[in-house]
Amino acid sequence: MHPIFDRLVSLLDSHAATYRLLMHDAEGQSARVAQIRGTQPGQGAKAMLCTLKGQAERYALAVLPGDQKLDMKKLGAALGGKKAELVKAETAMALTGCRIGAIPPFVFDERIQLIVDPTLTSRYEDIAFNAGRLDASMVLATRDYLAIARPRLLDISLI
Fold first, then answer.
1. Comparing C-alpha atoms, which of 98, 97, 58 is closest to residue 78?
2. Is residue 45 helix, strand or coil?
3. pLDDT digit string (tens) for 49-100?
4. Considering the entire predicted model, what is its pTM?
5. 41 vs 34: CA distance, rounded Å
6. If we measure between CA atoms, which residue out of 48, 66, 58 comes closest to residue 105?
7. Could you tell me which residue ranges the YbaK/aminoacyl-tRNA synthetase-associated domain spans (predicted)?
């Protein structure tokens, strides 16, 4: 399998979380994967690894609904600076063990802050996300996600 996928399954099982696993064709684009999953785009947890512009060692996993766009200035302010930027693909792989598009909304590296836009966790009873692989998704009860991941909730979406 895949180490992050296995770690997610183990983590969710150890907390007796309510989730379902979906295997599907590889897809990382939010709208298309929502259609494959049979979920709404806003249920999708789009996870993007970012850093504070000019300070490559300050990382945040910014998670927002698949139908929203990330506001780099809001995220930058949350990190104590002016503007955030996406990390390079190699950095994302090194820090998360996943390719861009497959990163789940969980942090397994203490160098990364988990920041979640509250619109993700307030609109639906379940969230959906790629499970460390582009061909595997999980649909997880929102209440379980919040209890297990314990994210910092902050408005990081563009209005």
1. 58
2. strand
3. 999 887 767 899 999 999 999 999 999 999 888 999 999 999 999 999 999 9
4. 0.94
5. 5
6. 48
7. 30-146
